[in-house]
Write the structure tokens for this entry.
Amino acid sequence: MHLPLYIFVIAYFFVANCSNAQTRVGEDTLVQRADSLFSVTPKIYDNVEQAYRLLRQALDDFDGKDARRFDATADAALCAIWLALHDKDRSDILKHASEAMSFSLKVISLDKDRAEGYYYRAIATGLFAEQNKSYGRQSMNEIRANGEKALALNPKFDHAGPHRLLGALYLRAPGPPSGIGSLRKAIEHLEQAVTTAPDYSENLIFLAEAYLKSERRDEAARMLDRASAAIATEGQLADPQKWKKQIDELQARLRKSP
């Protein structure tokens, strides 16, 4: 944020695999069309942009008390995050990240006892702060607060996403006095993420990085082996080659003399 791209990475993992729409057959045609477009893999910008437009149109049409508004609003936040991740121009990134932050707040207002809004808000805040360096320290505190709220409400959401988010935050944020980084806290959260979702590759990759940073090299190697197996067998990642490269880079660091 300048928090070195840690929430960017979290967001990439998260957006690739989530969707909240749970509409009934024959109803909410706009939301159904948006969900279909967003679900197409591999995702392409035009499809997600069109899905985002449809969701915004649907939200304008929904009655204010319609219970389905929660899912449509959450999916709008998700689309905005994806677009911010794939925009080329800084102005577009800021626009979509800001809109994702706004939609996330609406998700919270619709149901403050569900984790989604806080989790999305944390990710969107990180994306916005990545382009607005003056927002750095404030953003770290906001990301932590929203991550902790999501954790308290649903620690299993998105394959232990709240633990993964907080672990990555503590792992990659600068340490005191300029930031809140803490290798000890990072490992605690990432170990819990792996305990909760032991075969989810993103959890394993982040924990391997944390172990390597703490010179726990054998444990890092084991996590990387497990992450490679998870990617190969479950196809969890939208861009597996990208994360195989990340594993390769960590393994190359392991091979270097301590």
